[in-house]
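Quick review question:
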């Protein structure tokens, strides 16, 4: 194997983004992955949703999400031009809806929290929810509109990144790396998601299983990204430009189990049908389970870790944080200021 400046292990959206950005800065880059884009990236719905995914006590993650969200439009534009593949970036916002009175009370509290943080959300009555998305059930009690949230097709992003990276002179090696010993590069970047601890024992990253479904319907069946709380449980429906709808996702702490289960599929369809009843007419095109890389504080590890660089542990925000993560790692390679200092692996 020829020597490179940078050797990236892992071809998910984080590893591919780092590899592409490093190659466009003139570095020789090799990326190793037996099947790039086939794990958590493939399972992801692609919501770029720091506003509607905000959670209590996770304000550092919100700051990073908002910073990366700002990078997304230019990142997607450059990527489409460099990779020649449209990535379906959508800017119509997210409608968050509540199914029963308790769900509405929870959403009201979330709206108050979001407003306190200075985030732009509009409260909607049930009728206004249905004006924003006509396929919503008449039972939806009310909701919120988060206009600033975006969404994208992560499978297309992964394809475009591979193409753009190779067009920039990068090399993809379709192999699994099992040791950090003797890799032919000045810098090694571990971006292997939930599998990163197999190369860096002691890195506190664990797999968090997410089951998703893909439904196939007529183009435009659903016009906007919908997140719902249905009797306390969460579900989202994300439309694609070709008529597919991604329905997700379970959150399960089951180690490296990627079985799709009857219970997981049932719960997703049950909750999705309560808020968008028309989905029962659609084809069930795919079921899939991916492993989010979770960390103890829900922040990723991005930065120098001993002799290598790490970019892993993005949990539920891998697609959203990809542009900022790439900037952070490439800045590190060039000795520039770190835009993600709170993500340093030194906090382990
Ligand atoms: N960000 C969506 C999920 O993790 O399911």
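Suggested answer, residue by residue:
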């Amino acid at each position: 194997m020829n020597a490179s400046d940078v050797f990236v292990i892992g071809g998910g959206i984080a590893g591919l983004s780092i590899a592409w950005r490093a190659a466009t800065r003139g570095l020789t880059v090799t990326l190793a992955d037996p099947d790039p884009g086939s794990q958590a990236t493939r399972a992801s719905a692609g919501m770029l949703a720091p506003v509607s995914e905000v959670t209590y006590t996770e304000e550092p993650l919100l700051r990073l999400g908002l910073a990366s969200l700002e990078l997304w439009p230019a990142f997607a534009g450059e990527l489409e031009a460099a990779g020649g593949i449209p990535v379906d970036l959508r800017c119509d916002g997210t409608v968050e809806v509540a199914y029963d009175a308790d769900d509405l009370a929870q959403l009201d509290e979330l709206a108050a929290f979001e407003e306190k943080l200075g985030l732009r959300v509009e409260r909607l009555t049930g009728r206004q929810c249905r004006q924003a998305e006509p396929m919503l059930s008449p039972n939806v009690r009310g909701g919120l509109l988060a206009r600033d949230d975006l969404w994208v097709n992560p499978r297309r992003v992964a394809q475009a990144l591979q193409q753009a990276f190779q067009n920039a002179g990068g090399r993809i090696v379709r192999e699994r790396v099992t040791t950090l010993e003797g890799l032919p590069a000045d810098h090694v970047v571990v971006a292997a998601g939930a599998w990163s601890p197999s190369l860096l024992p002691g890195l506190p990253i664990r797999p968090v299983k997410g089951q998703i479904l893909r439904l196939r319907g007529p183009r435009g069946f659903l016009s906007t990204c919908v997140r719902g709380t249905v009797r306390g449980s969460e579900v989202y429906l994300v439309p694609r430009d070709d008529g597919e709808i991604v329905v997700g996702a379970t959150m399960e702490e089951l180690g490296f189990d990627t079985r799709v289960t009857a219970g997981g599929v049932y719960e997703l369809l049950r909750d999705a049908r309560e808020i968008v009843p028309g989905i029962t007419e659609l084809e069930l095109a795919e079921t899939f389970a991916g492993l989010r890389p979770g960390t103890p504080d829900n922040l990723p590890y991005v930065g120098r870790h001993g002799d290598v660089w790490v970019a892993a542990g993005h949990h539920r925000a891998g697609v959203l944080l990809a542009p900022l993560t790439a900037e952070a790692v490439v800045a590190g390679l060039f000795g520039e200021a770190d835009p993600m200092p709170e993500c340093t692996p030194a906090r382990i």
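Why it works: The first helix runs from residue 13 to 24. The chain is about 30% helix and 25% strand.
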